[in-house]
Specification:
The structure is a single chain. About 30% of the residues lie in helices and about 30% in strands. The chain is of the alpha+beta class. It folds into two domains: about 15-90, no CATH class; about 90-129, no CATH class. It has a six-stranded antiparallel beta sheet with strand order 3-4-1-2-5-6, covered by helices on one side. The model has no long low-confidence stretch (mean pLDDT about 85).
Length: about 130
Amino acid sequence: MHKLILFLALLALIAAFFYPKQAGASLCGQPCQTFGLRYYEQPCFGIKVRDDSGSDYSDICYGRTYGEKTCYGVPYTETENSAVRQLSCDYPCRDSAIRSLCLHLISLPQTESPLHSACPGLINKCNWR
């Protein structure tokens, strides 16, 4: 009887370890806009599999995720180099320069600036009223 309980407990531990967990995903939909957050990643101890069956993708970890999420994207203020780089996962909500720019730009006539077109959504998302 004890062997059966031990076996079931071990089976439950293995199942809990390999239960699927989010380990990364797109943050912008398809297709991504040029600027802003694009995706996040989180390290996985186990097997990481990409599920791209929907319009976006997500990375599933069969094992344990560990560490912090790392987010990547292109800053709104970037005009020369639009290469994806690591950004804060709460970007741009804590960026006071972008907040000031958005609150100023929203009062001006529409321009071709990517930040100008993104500002109404950012003001709502970040609660910058």
